[in-house]
Amino acid sequence: MATTSGIGVSPELTTAFSDAVETKNVRFFKVIIQDESLVSVASLPVADSFNEDLVQLQEYLEDKEPCYILARLDDPPSEWLAVSYVPNFANIRDKTLYASTRSSLTKSLGSTVFTDSLFAISKADLTPEAYDAHKRHKAAPKPLSAREQEMEKIKAAEREAGNSYEGSNARKNHIGQRVGLSWSSEAEDAVKGLGLRNDSRMVILKIEPSTESLELDSFADLTVDNLSSGIPSDEPSYVFYAWANPYSQAGGDIVFIYSCPAASPVRYRMVYSSAAISTYLAAKNFLVESGSAFPLATKRFETSDPAELDESFLKAGLNHDGSPGAIVNNNGARENDPAKPSFAKPKGPARRR
Description:
Layout: E1 8-9, H1 11-23, E2 26-33, E3 37-45, H2 50-56, E4 67-72, E5 80-85, H3 92-109, E6 114-120, H4 128-139, H5 146-166, E7 182-183, H6 185-194, E8 201-208, E9 213-221, E10 237-244, E11 252-259, H7 266-290, E12 296-303, H8 311-317
Parallel strand pairs: 1-3, 5-6, 7-9, 11-12
Antiparallel strand pairs: 2-3, 2-4, 4-5, 8-9, 8-10, 10-11
């Protein structure tokens, strides 16, 4: 950490700089260390552009005497450039003193207005050409190490692969946390329609493999007793079932069922499993938009055998039977079942006497 000299800004410089920030009519301040204080010994008004005014600054610079130059920029005029001019021919004591005082100068005057800094060791470093080179250097990409270059290549390859994947019309809908699928208008309308009725109705959605989008497979008015017969038994699907029942305070529930029969192809299982949550969350938004009469149940059902889906199965999962509800797994088992005996800790061995 660089040490500071303890030299402060004079009240006169503070007042003059504050006025210049407000009036915007001063281009340069030349500041030196004098009698243990930072003071302004010259100021130049704004006459033309920054580069053209920079030419006038040359006559105020000495070959062996350091100084600070506070320079107002053109765009925007409220920003300033802090220049540390420490020529090579200055003595060591002055070089050290000006180097340790620079931060005190900008902090005391307000570091937020100084958006750029420049270090000059000769008059040639403060010409229009030199300043343009400084701006180009500042705007240029920072040099990368061999490891950083390797990481940039990896990121570029990942971006290219991601763009190719986006180009397949997949992941257009980013609602959810995992794989976001795009919805066909028919699928979206069918789910929204569940909330506009007060009877039992089933909507089945499937993923189109070529585009990985959700498509409407079928819909039907269906009682809970016939629910299992309406769900495919040989391939995975997403089922939204509006179940009119006397157990819910709203007169019914909309339940989400992810059905993945054991005979389903492995590649489909992976896609359906990873997109289940995002599909559920997207449907939740659609039903809120449509002002659904039945709420979407917070419990999500999963099954590998659609034949087990009946009224008792739904009642258990939705806590309509008075027991603590839980997500029903693919075996139809429920967590926190009070009928299930708790695990008793075995007694330890008896002590020897």
